[in-house]
Amino acid sequence: MNGLERMNAALSLQEVDRVPIWFMRQAGRHLPEYREIAKSHSFWERCKDSDLCSKISLQPLVRYKQIDSAIVFSDILTPLPSLGYDVEYGGGIRIDPFKFDDVDGWASFNSRKHAPWAADGLKAIGEEIGDEKAKIGFVGSPWTISMYLLSGGTGDKDFNNARALVSSNPEDSKRLLMKMGEIVGDLLADQVNSGGADVVQIFDTWAGLLSNEDYRNLSQIATEKAIQVFREKSKKFVPLIHYAKGSGHLHNQIRDMDIQGLSLDWRDDMRYNRENYGEMIAFQGNLDPSKLHGSTDVAKEAAARVLKVAGGKPGHIFNLGHGFAPSARIDCVEAVIRTVCGDIP
Fold first, then answer.
1. For the chain, which domains are there?
2. Quick one: pLDDT band at residue 344, thresholds 50, 70, 90?
3. DSSP label at 218?
4. By the 8 A CB rule, do 277 and 258 touch?
5. Is 235 helix (H, G, I), strand (E, B) or coil?
6. pLDDT of residue 228
7. What are the Cα distances from residue 116, in Å, to 50, 69, 124, 161?
8. What does 16-30 look like in DSSP terms, one character per residue?
9. Phi then psi for 267, rounded to 5 degrees?
């Protein structure tokens, strides 16, 4: 089987010749070849130039040949500039001020017109790798994007001020979140229709801050809107993976959505999830990314443990419980890949 076949089989709960593997944030900061590009090109240049985007997205596949998927180099905040908010990176994130009344003035969003970069990058990736590897598109969830927008960037600890704005302005907040859901759904559909994505993922990084009730009334309804728009606008069915850090208490609600894969963070119980829900949904992730910062023996042991607790039933994709940090060690990544895939040729 090739990488695309493995990913499709795993997400369809079918048998595979080995567990498929890719890493969140695999394209980027931990690679010296990426840092060379970053020296001479701004972040937005790296995202918007399809040749640069494709080159960066493929760097991990060149270095780690057994990885099964290329995830496009992009960012969860890509829709914001088209809505009138400058987004700056470096020493945190800075975003132009937002007011709830702004939503009324937002233009009708069209990804092809306003934010085509991830889809264009995916198309360029496909021209290089064909159908040998899965091409993964992604977006941020409406809730997570809105947390950054309401905070003017990185925000205070646990986004307390942004969440206070939401709870103090329930109707305005719902309008913002549902509008962002429409935008996110359109972005995902464009990555399939124009970019040729084989798999897509929603990153709801900050959903774990919410109680079950607040999740149901805020993030979940907006994410369901995004998925609805995505399904309506996509010209073909593409499996969708959901990731939310620290969201174990929300998994009963997350599994109810139209998703084919649930990505677990390193604190979640992979064995419990696989044994109790492995017949209905695929599971991804669970490796503590800190294990890639120390010795190769620790990295191998951690990877072997994830494989053991996941068991041998179909529907498992090997991944991290969160994305690579810049100081992840390449020899540790290689040790994990050998543990999952066997010796690197």
1. 3-341 (3.20.20.210)
2. low
3. I
4. no
5. coil
6. 98
7. 10, 21, 12, 32
8. -SS--B--TT-SSTT
9. -95, -10
Tell me: the pLDDT tens digits for 153-212? Answer: 997 889 999 999 999 999 999 999 999 999 999 999 999 999 999 999 999 999 999 999
Q: Is there a contact between 26 and 69 (Cβ–Cβ < 8 Å)?
A: no
DSSP letter string over 305-325?
Answer: HHHHHH-SSS-EEB-BSSPPP
Structure tokens at 115: 């934010």
List the one residue out of 288, 294, 302 whose CA is nearest residue 336. Answer: 302
Distances (CA, A) of 111 to 17, 43, 182, 223, 314: 37, 19, 11, 18, 35
Q: In 10 A of CB 70, how many CB atoms?
A: 28
Tokens of 109: 């969003």
Task: Judge whether 186 and 109 are in contact, CB under 8 Å.
Answer: yes
- Model pTM score: 0.97
Can you state the angle between helices 142-151 and 170-193, rounded to 10 degrees?
Answer: 120
Q: What is the DSSP string of 96-139?
A: ----TTHHHHPPPP-HHHH--HHHHHHHHHHHHHTTSSEEEEEE
d(CA 315, CA 14): 7
Of the candidates 298, 324, 289, 318, the one whose C-alpha atom is nearest the C-alpha of residue 306 is 318
What is the distance between the alpha carbons of residues 272 and 258, in angstroms, rounded to a whole number? Answer: 21
As a dihedral over the C-alpha atoms of residue 170, residue 175, residue 180, residue 182, rounded to 10 degrees, the angle is 140
pLDDT (0 to 100) of residue 177: 98
Beta bridge partners of 261: 241, 282
Nearest CA to 260 out of 10, 3, 1 is that of 10
Side-by-side strand order, sheet with 69-71: 69-71, 134-140, 199-203, 240-243, 261-264, 282-285, 316-317
On the CB side of 112, CA atoms within 13 Å amount to 6
Q: Around Cβ 98, how many Cβ atoms within 10 Å?
A: 21
For residue 248, which amino acid is it?
G
